[in-house]
Design goal:
Rossmann fold, seven-stranded mixed beta sheet, five-stranded parallel beta sheet, 12 helices, globular
């Protein structure tokens, strides 16, 4: 990624955020959260516990959005009112997320952003609906959350079913184009609703495409310390591809087990995996992660403003920005655009404005952020990323490829 100065990065990010606040709605009204003063947006992320690193990324993405919007003049339709984050630590626990959501709402938050874990988001969505407060999900994949008929919940990322379906299609297309069609996929996944629902989508699409999925092998991500036994089972299965859906720590364990057991595979292919597309994975996995794929949501590195955001993030927080931070950034922008469009702090009017938005995104998609009647972003799109050298790059579809990268397949054997 080309380096630019922090001043240039900030200017570009402000331009991106200003696009969300350029509406022509009339001057501010009081609404359901009071009149003048800063407009509170509640964030709900795991700021402590096993997922604190991811929570920090999401929280930092939200902070940059607020700073950029405020620097561009705040919410102009509300006389330049500034945004203010009110943070809640979910600890990765559904009950804590629920109580923190209630606290933030009672504290005057006009909307909520979160939460990284679907089980937590399910509880928060129920609280948001009961209190009629808009809730914009940044990272949350469970399809079931938006099947309750909620009017106040919105999701930016692809749902788990789409992650699985598109993951199977991406694998099929890459392998077929390389002249090594997929025959049999062993599937390793965490045993939570995340892993099982992505697997279900993958299996359904694989059946349509004509390749076999099995064995599917599950594990407890909270307690697993070694995956050698599971990878030995993969080796015995004769599968030509290993698909993996898990979180960061357990997926690194999987990569190390593959390097130790050495099953004969054409590829290790993550599907909505929490590690294989992350910027730190090549360093953490070393040679064990060479050539690994992941089909997932992804920062649009070919978008100059998104690239500037990533540069600013690294200069500000001294670590590389993950795509999840961009989703949190966009979630705040959605709320800001809704405030601009409605010209009101009223939560009901804000909800109506958000539901009808069309907003450019920092994340790859089939188009701008746009929500259907269930609250799902209809243009969300998983793309295939591969570890190439010391970094991860989008390699498929070709029109989204980073640095003209192309898929290497087979990679670990074949």
């Amino acid at each position: 990624m080309k380096r630019i100065s922090i001043a240039a990065a900030l200017a570009s990010v402000i331009s991106l955020s200003a696009a969300a606040c350029g509406g022509t709605a009339p001057g501010g009204t009081g609404g359901g959260t009071g009149g003048s003063g800063a407009i509170k947006i509640g964030t709900l992320h795991p700021l402590s516990g096993a997922s604190a690193g991811d929570g920090a990324q999401l929280e930092n993405g939200a902070k940059l959005a607020v700073e950029a919007i405020n620097a561009a003049g705040g919410v102009k339709a509300l006389k330049g009112a500034k945004l203010q984050l009110a943070s809640g630590d979910t600890q990765g626990k559904p009950d804590v997320g629920q109580s923190e959501a209630q606290r933030l709402i009672q504290g005057g938050a006009v909307a909520l952003v979160g939460t990284y874990m679907s089980a937590v988001s399910a509880n928060v969505a129920a609280v948001a609906e009961r209190n009629q407060v808009p809730f914009v999900m940044d990272v949350t994949g469970d399809d079931g959350i938006l099947k309750h008929g909620y009017k106040y919940s919105f999701r930016i990322q692809p749902p788990n079913s789409q992650m699985g379906t598109v993951g199977a299609q991406n694998l099929y297309d890459i392998a077929k184009s390389a002249g090594h069609p997929v025959k049999k996929v062993a599937y390793l996944h965490d045993q939570t609703a995340f892993g099982t629902s992505v697997l279900a989508g993958f299996k359904a699409q694989a059946a349509k495409l004509g390749f076999q999925v099995g064995p599917d092998i599950s594990y407890d991500p909270a307690s697993v310390s070694d995956l050698t036994t599971q990878i030995t089972q993969v080796k015995a299965s004769g599968a030509d591809v290993l698909a993996v859906t898990g979180y960061y720590r357990d997926s690194v364990l999987a990569a190390k087990a593959v390097a130790s057991v050495k099953p004969r595979l054409n590829a290790v292919f993550g599907v909505a995996d929490g590690a294989f597309d992350q910027p730190q994975f090549p360093a953490d996995a070393g040679a064990a992660g060479k050539g690994y794929y992941d089909s997932n949501y992804r920062l649009d590195a070919n978008n100059p403003k998104a690239s500037a955001l990533a540069t600013l993030y690294q200069q500000r927080f001294h670590t590389q920005m993950r795509s999840e931070a961009a989703l949190a950034y966009d979630a705040v922008r959605v709320i800001a655009a809704g405030l601009e469009k409605s010209g009101s702090r009223d939560r009901g009017k804000l909800r109506d404005a958000v539901s009808g938005l069309t907003l450019d995104s920092t994340v790859i998609g089939n188009g701008p952020i746009k929500f259907d009647q269930t609250g799902q972003n209809v243009n969300a799109l998983p793309v295939a990323v591969q570890v190439q050298g010391t970094t991860t790059k989008v390699v498929y579809p070709a029109k989204y490829a980073e640095d003209d990268a192309t898929p290497a397949y087979p990679v670990t054997g074949g």
